[in-house]
Amino acid sequence: MDFVQSNLLTLLVFSPLAGAALIALWPAGQVRTIRWLAFVASLVPLGLALDLWLRFNRAAAAATGFLFVQDIPWYPAIGASYHVGVDGISLAMVLLTALLTPLAVLISFSIKDRVRTYMALFLALETGLLGVFVSLDFLLFFIFWRSAWCRCIS
Predict the structure, then answer these.
(1) 95 near 53, Cβ under 8 Å?
(2) Alpha carbon separation from 24 to 30, 91, 110 (Å, rounded)
(3) What's the pTM value of the predicted model, to 2 decimals?
(4) Hey, which residues does 139 pair with through a beta bridge?
């Protein structure tokens, strides 16, 4: 349980990508299963976002600025790192994204053409959006933003 607490944001951001990878590897003919896998995979970040919201301490956030911070050096030559955290506004955006994604997946059950690709890309889009809201490093923000933007226009 300590692993989940110390890596809560990372699990939240990348769990939809794991679901997308599972769906991408699933046989394309099993459309009903793919739809339900996408829905269940979209519920994982929702559960983690609710846990994040319940653990969020407003007083500590007001004093320190960001909570649940992870800062791992990534590319020291330019000072880039995997630096994520949440404050009150980003927490609201994370919660909203995690809440709307399962609803959007349910609404998308009517999609009939290339369901596997659609659901996998939809979950990858959620990863990009969640990453944008928790990024505290500009390069990381740009990568998540670019990832989400490319998924929106394709």
Answers:
(1) yes
(2) 12, 29, 19
(3) 0.89
(4) none
Q: φ and ψ at 82, to 5 degrees?
A: -85, 90
DSSP 108: G
Contact status, residue 154 vs residue 128, Cβ threshold 8 Å: no
pLDDT in tens, 54-109: 988 887 777 778 888 888 888 888 888 889 999 889 999 999 999 999 999 999 99
Query: 131 is written with which tokens?
Result: 């990453």
Residue 120: how many other CB atoms lie within 10 Å: 25
Length of the chain: 154
The whole-angstrom distance between residue 123's C-alpha and the CA centroid of its chain comes to 8
Q: Where is 50: in which H helix or E strand?
A: helix 31-55
Long-range contacts (CB closer than 8 Å, 24 or more residues apart) made by 10-14: 10/70, 10/84, 11/48, 12/45, 12/48, 12/49, 12/52, 12/94, 12/98, 12/130, 12/134, 13/45, 13/84, 13/127, 13/130, 13/131, 13/134, 14/127
CA-closest candidate to residue 123, choices 15, 27, 12, 48? 15
Nearest partner of 74 among 134, 9, 116, 137, judged by Cα: 137
DSSP secondary structure of 24-39: HHS-TT-HHHHHHHHH
